Each structure stands twice: as structure tokens, then as C-alpha cells.
Amino acid sequence: MTKMKLGVSMDFSAAHFLPQHPGKCKDLHGHTYKVEIVVVGEQKGSTGCVADFAEVKAHVGAVLELVDHKFLNEILETPSSENIALFLKQQLEKKLEQSDLGVSLYSIKLWEGRDKWVMIELS
Ligand SMILES: [Zn+2]
User: Fold this and answer.
1) Annotation says 16 is catalytic
2) 112 catalytic, yes or no?
3) What is the model's pLDDT at position 47?
4) Is 69 one of the catalytic residues?
5) What is the CATH number of the domain that holds 92?
């Protein structure tokens, strides 16, 4: 079976400040973040699908519940985009392992606003 990648994207909003930042990010402010998740797996059975997009989104949504409309400094000591992406990656890897979706995380890209992002690729 051919391995294929599936992607979903979802938004969340949250507040944070970066205590060690030399510029204005040290003050309390908020963002709408976009998360793009890519998972990888094989087509299964007669459905022709690797995984149901809705089920993948449900798992991503469950993880985003942890950060949506939250004050991120209460979750992470330094809630930089990099650290938020790492946190979401860890949570999502755990969720996917526990699920019966049969896919694994390939990459996570976290957009902070419209023009800035960080990406973690898993090998
Ligand atoms: Zn910020």
C-alpha cells in the first residue's frame, strides 16, 4: 500500500507574554494561531481513505481545547511559538498513538498571525 500524507488545519486564540523578550512581546497580548497538521499512513480497506478527515480533526480539536482561549503562560513557562508547537506536537503524538486511526504525525506548523510560523518535521 502507498503511504500518503493527509493535512488538516484549525485555528485557536490565546493570550500570552514572553518574559525574556527584549521588545514589545514581553507585554500581555493575544493571537489567533493556525495549526497545520500533516499525518502519514496507508490507505485502508475498501474506503480508499488513509483516515477520516473528520476524525483527524476531532483529535486535533481535542488537543487545541487545551490552549484555545487560554492564558498560555499558565501552561508553558515561555510560550513562544516554538514552545507552543512543541507542546501541541507532544499532545498530538500521544493522542494519535492512543487512537485507532493508524496514522502518525508527520509535521506540525504553527502560524502566529498571518505572516509568521514555525514548523516541526518528524523523521
Ligand atoms: Zn505573541
Assistant:
1) no
2) yes
3) 86
4) yes
5) 3.30.479.10
- Residues in the chain where the model's pLDDT stays below 50: none
pTM of the model: 0.95
Beta strands at 70-71 and 29-42: parallel, antiparallel or unpaired: unpaired
- Give residue 118's pLDDT: 98
Could you say which of 42, 69, 97, 121 is catalytic? 69
Confidence at residue 30, expressed as pLDDT on a 0 to 100 scale:
96
Distance CA 106, CA 121 (A): 6
- DSSP code string of 54-99: HHHHHHHHHHHTTTTTEEGGGT-SS--HHHHHHHHHHHHHHHHHHS
Domain that holds residue 85: 3-121
Confidence at residue 71, expressed as pLDDT on a 0 to 100 scale: 98
Write the Ramachandran bin of 17: left for phi over 0, alpha for psi from -120 to 50, otherwise beta. beta
Number of folded domains that form the chain = 1
End-to-end CA distance of the chain: 20
Distance from the CA of 65 to the center of ligand 1, in angstroms?
A: 19
For residue 68, the model assigns a pLDDT of: 98
